[in-house]
Amino acid sequence: MTTFRFNIAVFAALVAGPVHAIDVPSGIDLYLHEVLFADNAARFRFVAPEIARDLGAFGFNDVADDFAHLCAVHALPALEKADKPVQEIVISISDRVTEFGIGDPEVTQFFEAFAVENATCIWKEF
């Protein structure tokens, strides 16, 4: 599998302007870290320090609605605007910036995957 890292500053300029905090249903402070492309999938990697285990403020259930929101309101329109069609979108939220594919037991990370059909995010159960 070939992974293509899309420079987030370039991607943000293409789709929305400067990198900034994003509003989500949970109300956590969240921003886009990077977007990765591999095969027919796009990974939108977000950072939200408030989900850190040691803070105990927000767990998965608290941010569960954020995933569909991020897919439908941010990822799909960004991909459409950048003319980057994909069949799958993976949304991840970490408590800090991490290197993709490198495990770190200290990091809190949640993720959900969505199939893209008819310009709609459809949740994929693992």
User: Strands of the largest sheet, in order across it?
Assistant: 1-2-3-4-5-6
Largest sheet composition: 6 strands, mixed
Total E-strand runs = 6
| SSE class | alpha+beta
What portion of the residues fall into strands of 2 or more residues? 25-35%
Number of helices: 2
Low-pLDDT runs of 5+ residues are 13-18
Helix content: 10-25%
* Order of secondary-structure elements: EHEEHEEE
- Determine the oligomeric state from the structure: single chain
Write a structural description.
- The structure is a single chain.
- With 126 residues, the protein is α+β, with helices and mostly antiparallel strands.
- The chain is built from 2 helices and 6 strands.
- It has helices at 8-15, 60-81; strands at residues 3-6, 31-38, 41-47, 88-94, 109-117, 120-124.
- Strand 5 and strand 6 (120-124) form a beta hairpin.
- The radius of gyration is 14 Å and the shape is globular.
- The model is unreliable at 13-18 (pLDDT under 50).
Fold topology:
Elements: E1 3-6, H1 8-15, E2 31-38, E3 41-47, H2 60-81, E4 88-94, E5 109-117, E6 120-124
Parallel strand pairs: 3-4
Antiparallel strand pairs: 1-2, 2-3, 4-5, 5-6
Helix pairs in contact: 1-2
Summarize the structure.
With 126 residues, the protein is an alpha+beta fold. It is 24% helix and 32% strand.
